């Protein structure tokens, strides 16, 4: 019996060694990021008295914000310098002049100490006014210096209570300075006035507005915005889609913006060379009150109208931004597919963007809804060593390894069992 256990142990060790030998040995390591021109983000949180309301996942808005902040702080990329500013967190009185100056930086913009940042957030309690305008001005000053991307993420559950300093005008002034600073706004269970004001702030600086009604939505969206700050900046290019493919603008890889009316479709053209993969995504924002059920469709079709691939997404009113995307790899060309100059002929792919938004009759139809279209062309999977060429990525490749390992294990186990039985009969 002891002899048999030793055989089993040896067999398992041998199989483990074989499996490790089959697995890829190269491990990609990220190059350390330089502190020069580091991306900067300041999370600006409303801590006014209305944050006591208990209408997000059965808990207060403040509790939901704290939980989301802790999750975001844990996931901040190392290269991002992060700060935290509050508004309405310290003055509980009725003096308007004092309350409208109640904005403080509770964690300075710089390399992140996650423990200290969480401790600063943990002490917050809903208190006073909602001075959005002064908070934006102060946050812009906090992010001064350097040439990296800068972003303010404003999280509030209500509109500014400190007029006449209009937050929209403050946002326009920030944008006019040309300091590469974007303001993204998130409304916690917002009403119509809050939605309108936050949309105006975001639009003035090229940012986004998102309505939030659940804790996980808040955490996911803030994390997404922080991660976006760490990516290279792409300056959007204004374009205008056409009603049919033959008249559509021809786009190169990049980021594009457009406007699309309710229930409209627009076409754009992209040239894809053999051996390339087209990657496209589209986002449409509801910058006004719309009906709860809506969707977005992105189709890649030939110039003759035949559909190649599509991506679609539906929404139910929980968020004001809806996105979808698609991928189209074009196979390598044969020699006979080359033109007279010896170059491979490119295929014109028509991208159709459609939406199913609708709205009450009282809502303005002009201008159309904001559209953001991303186009990228990359090398397609053309070698067996490229895991993407399997269609299911590394998971498919690993599945084959496991199947082969299982087969070898079965054969080896059977041989050992027969050898052991023969040894016992001989003894």
Task: Please tell me about this protein's structure.
- This protein is an alpha/beta fold.
- The chain has nine helices and 17 strands.
- The chain has helices at residues 2-22, 61-75, 96-99, 114-122, 132-142, 167-176, 192-204, 215-230, 394-426; strands spanning 40-46, 54-56, 59-60, 81-87, 103-110, 150-156, 181-188, 209-212, 237-238, 254-260, 265-272, 276-285, 294-301, 307-315, 321-329, 347-355, 369-379.
- The strands form four sheets. It has a six-stranded mixed sheet with strand order 5-4-1-6-7-8, sandwiched between helices. The chain has a five-stranded mixed sheet with strand order 9-10-17-12-15, with no helix packed on it.
- α7 (192-204) links the parallel β7 (181-188) and β8.
- α1 (2-22) runs antiparallel to α9, α2 (61-75) packs antiparallel against α4 and α6 (167-176) runs parallel beside α7 (192-204).
- The chain is globular, with a radius of gyration of 28 Å.
Per DSSP E runs of 2 or more residues, the count of β-strands stands at: 17
Q: What is the rounded Rg?
A: 28 Å
Structure annotation, total helices = 9
Helix content class? 25-40%
Strand and helix order:
HEEEHEHEHHEHEHEHEEEEEEEEEH
Side by side, the strands of the main sheet go 5-4-1-6-7-8
Question: Beta fraction of the residues?
Answer: 25-35%
Given helix and strand content, the structural type is alpha/beta
Calculate the mean pLDDT score and round it: 83
The outline comes out as globular
Give the N-to-C terminal Cα separation. 13 Å
Low-confidence segments: 1-9, 11-33, 384-394
Largest sheet geometry: 6 strands, mixed
């Amino acid at each position: 019996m002891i002899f048999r256990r030793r055989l089993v142990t040896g067999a398992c060790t041998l199989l483990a060694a074989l499996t490790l030998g089959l697995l890829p040995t190269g491990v990609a390591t990220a190059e350390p990021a330089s502190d020069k021109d580091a991306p900067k983000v300041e999370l600006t949180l409303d801590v006014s008295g209305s944050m006591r309301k208990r209408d997000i996942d059965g808990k207060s808005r403040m509790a939901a914000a704290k939980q989301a902040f802790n999750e975001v702080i844990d996931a901040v990329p190392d290269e991002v310098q992060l700060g935290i500013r509050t508004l309405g967190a310290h003055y509980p009185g009725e003096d308007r002049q004092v309350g409208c100056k109640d904005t403080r930086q509770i964690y300075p913009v710089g390399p992140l100490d996650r423990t200290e940042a969480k401790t600063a957030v943990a002490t917050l309690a809903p208190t006073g006014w909602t001075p959005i305008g002064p908070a934006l001005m102060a946050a812009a000053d906090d992010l001064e210096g350097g040439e990296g991307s800068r972003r303010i993420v404003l999280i509030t559950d209500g509109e500014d209570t400190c007029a006449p300093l209009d937050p929209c005008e403050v946002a326009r002034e920030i944008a006019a300075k040309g300091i590469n600073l974007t303001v993204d706004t998130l409304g916690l269970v917002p009403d119509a006035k809050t939605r309108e004001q936050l949309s105006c702030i975001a639009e003035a600086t090229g940012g986004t507005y998102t309505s939030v009604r659940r804790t996980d939505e808040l955490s996911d969206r803030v994390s997404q915005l922080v991660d976006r700050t760490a990516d290279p900046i792409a300056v959007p290019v204004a374009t205008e889609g056409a009603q049919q493919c033959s008249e559509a603008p021809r786009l190169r890889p990049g980021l594009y913006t457009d406007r699309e009316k309710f229930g409209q479709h627009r076409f754009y053209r992209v040239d894809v060379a053999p051996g390339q993969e087209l990657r496209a995504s589209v986002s449409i924002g509801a910058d006004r009150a719309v009906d709860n059920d809506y969707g977005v469709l992105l189709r890649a079709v030939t110039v003759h109208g035949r559909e190649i691939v599509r991506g679609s997404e539906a929404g139910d009113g929980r968020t004001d931004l809806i996105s979808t995307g698609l991928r189209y790899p074009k196979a390598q060309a044969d020699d006979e597919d080359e033109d007279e100059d010896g170059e491979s002929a490119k295929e014109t792919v028509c991208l159709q963007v459609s939406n199913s938004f609708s709205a009450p009759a009282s809502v303005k139809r002009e201008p159309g809804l904001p559209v953001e279209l991303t186009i990228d062309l990359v090398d397609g999977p053309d070698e067996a060593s490229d895991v993407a060429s399997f269609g299911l990525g590394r998971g498919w490749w690993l599945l084959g390894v496991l199947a082969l390992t299982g087969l070898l294990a079965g054969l080896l186990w059977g041989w050992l069992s027969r050898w052991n039985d023969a040894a016992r009969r001989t003894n």
